[in-house]
Amino acid sequence: MARNLDMTALRSFVAVAETGGVTKAAGFLNLTQSAVSMQLKRLEESLAVDLFDRAGRGIALTGNGEQLLGYARRMLALNDEVYSRLTSRDYEGVITLGVPHDIVYPSIPKVLQTFHAELPRVRVQLVSSFTNRLKQSYQRGECDLILTTEDRVDADGETLQSVPLIWVGAPGGVCWKQRPLRLAFEYGCIFRHGVQRALDEANIPWDMAVESDSTRTVEASVSADLAIHAILDGTTPPYVEPIQHGGALPTLASKKINLYRASLSKGPVTDRLCELLRQAFKTL
After folding, report:
1. 159 backbone dihedrals φ, ψ, rounded to 5°
2. Are residues 83 and 138 in the same domain?
3. What is the C-alpha separation between 219 and 102, in angstroms, rounded?
4. pLDDT score for 2
């Protein structure tokens, strides 16, 4: 007698495996943690195998779990493709989404991947720039949706998450111990003035050692231990690391990740993209 796998449970299984935990997976799936846990339990019971090794502090896949993960990804991809091809014929066009450089990763690629799987005829044109420039483009009607990183939110926006800024430097670097403190920032970075103010209030001398319009230039300088930088917690790229300064540097303020949606960009397509963005940044 044929038996069928629960696609909803498989989706939760893949989400937990990819995010490394039930909490983040639940946020991305817009479910409660208990709901995700129950789905995983039912999936294990239906297959009569353990999919996760829960003996350690974290959550890791067993051998059976690793084997299922490949199958599950292919099954979900095919499921989503069939569903989108047969139900999305009325939806096509272009949505322009503006995102600040520093929060493109890790959330935006997953959002774009999921959106494309569900609505393959709708193209998302991604514009990456600084918050101030994105807001100017938005006001000129050049973007349908924008994300920003700001101290506050305007009346026509919504705050998705409030995230603290952290100091980052080269892995194992010592530049943060030097005085004056060497900083690296883009000219248009909205964080730099708040960082400078925090250092002034802490009576720490500083020097803007690296200034550029290029984010890559700043990243290269920081990873070479020539200067330090400040980014939102949870967005640290692999070539730098949070500085464990033990109080030698001031604690930095939190910034709001805000979503703005143009009044003319209404409808189920932009509704869905907005929902994916909310889910992604709720788990940042």
Report:
1. -90, 125
2. no
3. 11
4. 62
